[in-house]
Amino acid sequence: MKDCNFSFEIEKICPVTGARAGILHTPRGDIKTPVFMPVGTQATVKGLRREDLDEMGAQIILSNTYHLFLRPGHEIVEKAGGLHTFMNWDKPILTDSGGFQVFSLSKLRKVSEAGVEFQSHLSGQKFMMTPELCMDIQKSLDSDINMALDQCTEAPGTYAEAEKAAELTKIWLERCAKAHQGGNHVLFPIVQGNLYKDLRKKCAEYCTPYAKCGIAIGGLSVGEAKSDMYEMLDFLHPILPHDMPRYLMGVGSPDCLVEGFARGVDMMDCVLPTRIARNGTAFTKTGKMVVKNSQYKEDFRAIEEGCDCYACRHYSRAYIRHLINAGEMLGAELLSIHNLRFLINLAEKTRKAILGDYFPEFLAEFRKTYKI
Ligand SMILES: [Zn+2]
């Protein structure tokens, strides 16, 4: 196994829930956990500049292997000096393996032990994604946290499908680990297994030896009930290695964020905050607010009074509503800033509550106040 220059320090564990506060030390800086990570699929967090991300307290962002491989091509990013230089972001970057996108976006997939043959959703051109290529692309991108290539199945899938996908994910993980560069880059294995506990346990067991400083939980929030997801997180909590961050992939509505952290998850990401922003919806402490509705026509208050984000400090509901309805891009940008700050702030508050020994009270208050 290759060395990696990452370490995880647990500062405090909530004795009631098991929620954790820690620091992931990376060569590109520390990440205080629990953390929400904004998603920048196409090497950009949609509509936002680097200054916006800095101001909202983003510590790490995500990007995507599949998308950057197809466009502009990882060789171009490498020529630019890597993804950090290319997109003007010098804090850590996590790149998703593209496994999920190969299964959700591309056409005509052919899965075998060798890899996945797929047709680009952009050009129709055929490619073969192998574990080695997946590692190679992430090496060219020079992202800090690299995800192993995995096969995700839909919920509720059959046991046989989930078992087959888990088996393939295991074979691919072994090859990813062999091809991975180590050093200033860390590989996160992904625990699959759908909603089958015995498969999840098996996956966690075979992933653990490959996890140097982080492990991911994939294949949740793919159509199952939230209660099923929470039950699986409860089940995995004592099984996953304790001394490294656990990353729950693609999950990040405010309620899922807090409930995930309460179940020992340390890192989460989701496209939801920027996606709903483009539709004119904002997160608030009490639930979602559809800012484009006519009730806000003459409402000159901030989206959320007391919110420290740039949008709330400078603009009103009435103005943002006007921008959204007029199709002006600033509307989506301001709501994206607010929604991302809302989730980053929620993770910061969770961390403060764990460190301050009042997380169970914080959780109870959140459950009472936030309407799903
Ligand atoms: Zn705000």
Walk me through this protein's architecture.
It is a single chain. The chain is of the alpha/beta class. β7 and β8 form a beta hairpin. α13 packs across α14. The mean pLDDT is 95. The chain binds zinc ion. Zinc ion (ZN) binds next to α12 and α14.
Q: What's the layout of helices and strands?
A:
Blueprint: E1 7-13, E2 20-26, E3 29-33, E4 35-37, H1 50-55, E5 61-64, H2 65-70, H3 74-79, H4 83-87, E6 93-96, H5 99-104, E7 107-112, E8 115-119, E9 126-129, H6 131-141, E10 145-147, H7 159-179, E11 186-188, E12 190-191, H8 197-207, E13 215-217, H9 226-236, E14 246-248, H10 254-262, E15 267-269, H11 272-278, E16 281-284, E17 287-290, H12 310-314, H13 317-325, H14 329-355, H15 359-369
Parallel strand pairs: 4-15, 5-6, 6-10, 10-11, 12-13, 13-14, 14-15
Antiparallel strand pairs: 1-2, 2-3, 7-8, 8-9, 16-17
The structure holds zinc ion.
Domain module tally: 2
| Number of E strands | 17
For the biggest sheet, the summary is: 5 strands, parallel
Mean pLDDT: 95
CA-CA gap between termini: 44 Å
- What is the helix fraction of residues, given as a range? 40-55%
The whole-angstrom Rg is 20 Å
Give the low-pLDDT segments.
none
Q: CATH architecture of the largest domain, please? A: Alpha-Beta Barrel
**Shape descriptor:** globular
Class of the largest domain, according to the CATH hierarchy? Alpha Beta
| Fold-level CATH name of the largest domain | TIM Barrel
Helix segment count? 15
What class would the helix/strand composition place it in?
Answer: alpha/beta
The CATH superfamily name of the largest domain is Queuine tRNA-ribosyltransferase-like
